[in-house]
């Protein structure tokens, strides 16, 4: 049983999918969680209502905007006066291929890199600076199977952003381990969430499952369980590691 009592954790993109299940899992394990969301206030409130309300704090921020991530960190810090762990889960996945108009292509790259990479890097920067003033802390960044095996031609930007997150996390782990700052990457394959379900319906669930040896798409609880374990501090020497959650469809 993972016990996160006394830990304050910031989870970005916590209103839906993997983020929502992660928030519930962490709170139920004893943590106090800052649930970041962008526009999904109703969903965020529903997640908060499903757990101990005094241990789940809602905070809105649009990570598409420059400097929003730094402001989010400072606002999150005000709730309990400290943060022990950050889970960078927020991300976007929009379609844009090489045959689309350049404006569509360029916009998809810029927006995806801003949310999936730059905002993550900004939050990591804030966390590292803060953790160095304390006795350390933990960073858990959510990447994707696509970081390693690539993605569909219409999602080149998504795969690139997630590959960069892996490199970022490994660099943090190497550079700041001496400050007791741990950094991990979790790389899910297909997970049954609202975001991925649109892609699954488009491509055909049967074809996708055929490529997954375990024979089914992962539930978000699998990802949340791994995040909770990494947040527990029970495997400090695994810092820098990427944990695959893809049913053996790609193991690096």
UniProtKB/TrEMBL annotation:
The keyword Oxidoreductase applies. GO terms for molecular function: 3-oxoacyl-[acyl-carrier-protein] reductase (NADPH) activity. The keyword Oxidoreductase applies. Keywords: Oxidoreductase. It is an enzyme of class 1 (oxidoreductase). Gene3D superfamilies: NAD(P)-binding Rossmann-like Domain. Belongs to the short-chain dehydrogenases/reductases (SDR) family. PANTHER family: BLL5898 PROTEIN, OXIDOREDUCTASE, SHORT-CHAIN DEHYDROGENASE/REDUCTASE FAMILY (AFU_ORTHOLOGUE AFUA_5G02870). This is 3-oxoacyl-[acyl-carrier-protein] reductase FabG. The gene is fabG_4.
